[in-house]
Specification:
Blueprint: H1 8-25, H2 30-37, H3 41-53, E1 57-59, E2 74-76, E3 81-89, E4 92-99, E5 104-110, H4 112-115, H5 118-132, E6 138-146, E7 150-151, E8 156-157, H6 171-179, E9 183-187, H7 188-200, E10 205-210, E11 214-220, E12 223-224, H8 255-259, H9 261-265, H10 273-281, H11 285-306, E13 313-317, H12 324-335, E14 348-352, H13 356-371
Parallel strand pairs: 3-6, 6-9, 10-13, 13-14
Antiparallel strand pairs: 1-2, 3-4, 4-5, 7-8, 10-11, 11-12
Helix pairs in contact: 1-3, 2-3, 5-6, 7-13, 10-11, 11-12
Length: 376
């Protein structure tokens, strides 16, 4: 493998970004940073001093300890670096200004009708950028999260089912032309997967976004699993029954055709996942049977993925995260004994509450990842 030569400036910038990546998620002392980064205490001190002179990092009040010298916690100063996050789905659009600490400074919402007009969404994002950017802050760009499939490298939304108005839309180009800012585009499930796993320190995980569709994001070895062309996993459009239902993507027997909440509830008396879970928890037979069916559908998809890519955590997000204490035992039971190589260790099941603020911060995080990533 050919290695790219590294010079002193490269190393300096890499180490600076490493320190900022660590401080993004929690306050740390110089000693903590040295231990977590593998850098020497002297190197960390030099980096911190420079960041303090630049007004990027600040020292906070020390936390009292029983003995010894109290370490001074460090944090990224709020509002120094900012990004706009735009989270687009079939329910509408959420957008806001977020700083490098992950603090949401301002947010706006657009209805599904407004989101069907690409020009209106672009104008709203441009207006937000002008009105809500804090004085003295540096705007790093715009992160857009949208339903897949996408051409992330080319900045285009391809052909997500139920999202026809946006098919082929060069959303990155449109926003850059309007705002002058660089723009990054990511799949909704991948956006949430990276945001959650970075905050929790997870390196091998699958996130399933189950609501009006079934989206997926896979983190392997601490990185988003994607092809060289930027294509990410579409577990919702893998087949669990090759003679099955016709899916909105044109395929047959896709996981989404069965496990997406509207598809699960079609033809029943239930209108929402919450209503279904509430009835199942009360012992209503048909509701309990539907939950069992959903566990069977999702376990088939999870099994296929985990037997291909070794993940130790499965995160459920979207509508399906509500009432998870009722649904969890059913899914765990379905997964038992089906995962090759995991007879002695179960896959951990977790939920992510993808509320509006989380969606916006996750979209903006795409900008911060680019800003703090090792140069190529």
């Amino acid at each position: 493998m050919k290695r790219t030569p590294r010079n002193a400036d490269y190393t300096k910038n890499y180490n600076r970004n490493l320190v900022l990546r660590l401080l993004r998620h929690r306050q740390m002392s110089r000693a903590d940073l040295a231990a977590a980064s593998g850098l020497t205490r002297a190197s960390v001190s030099l980096i911190v001093e420079e960041l303090q002179r630049q007004g990027v990092v600040e020292e906070l009040e020390p936390t009292a300890t029983k003995r010894g010298r109290t370490p001074l916690p460090l944090a990224i100063r709020g509002g120094v670096y900012c990004a706009v996050g735009v989270y687009l789905n079939r329910s509408g659009c959420q957008m806001g200004v977020v700083d490098l600490n992950g603090t949401l400074l301002e947010k706006r919402s657009l209805s599904p009708g407004a989101c069907s007009d690409t020009a209106a969404l672009v104008s709203a994002a441009a207006e937000l950028l002008v009105q809500a950017q804090p004085d003295g802050s540096k705007m790093l760009g715009i992160g857009v999260s949208a339903p897949g499939p996408l051409d992330s490298g080319g900045g285009r939304i391809l052909n997500p089912p139920g999202f026809a108005r946006w098919h082929g839309a060069p959303v990155c180009q449109m926003l850059t032309e309007k705002t002058g800012q660089p723009v990054w585009l990511e799949n909704n499930a991948c956006t949430l997967a990276q945001y959650y796993c970075e905050a929790k320190g997870l390196r091998d995980a699958l996130l399933l976004l189950v609501d009006s569709g079934v989206g997926s994001g896979v983190i392997s070895g601490g990185r988003l699993l994607q092809s060289g062309g930027g294509f990410t996993s579409e577990l919702g459009h893998t087949t669990i029954d090759f003679n099955g239902r016709l899916c909105s993507c044109g395929g047959r027997g896709c996981l989404e055709a069965y496990a997406a909440v509207p598809n699960l509830l079609r033809g029943t008396a239930y209108t929402s996942w919450r209503q279904l879970v509430e009835n199942a928890a009360q012992g209503v037979p048909d509701a309990a049977e539907l939950l069992e069916q959903e566990a069977a559908y999702l376990s088939a998809g999870i099994t296929n993925l985990v037997n291909l890519v070794d993940v130790d955590t499965v995160i459920l997000a979207g509508d399906i995260s509500w009432g998870f204490e009722t649904f969890r035992p059913l899914l765990e039971k379905r997964l038992q004994g089906r995962l090759i190589g995991r007879t002695d260790r179960a896959v951990a099941l977790e939920t992510m509450s993808a509320e509006t603020d989380t969606q916006i911060c996750a979209a903006a995080a795409a900008v911060f990842r680019n800003f703090l990533t090792e140069p190529v």
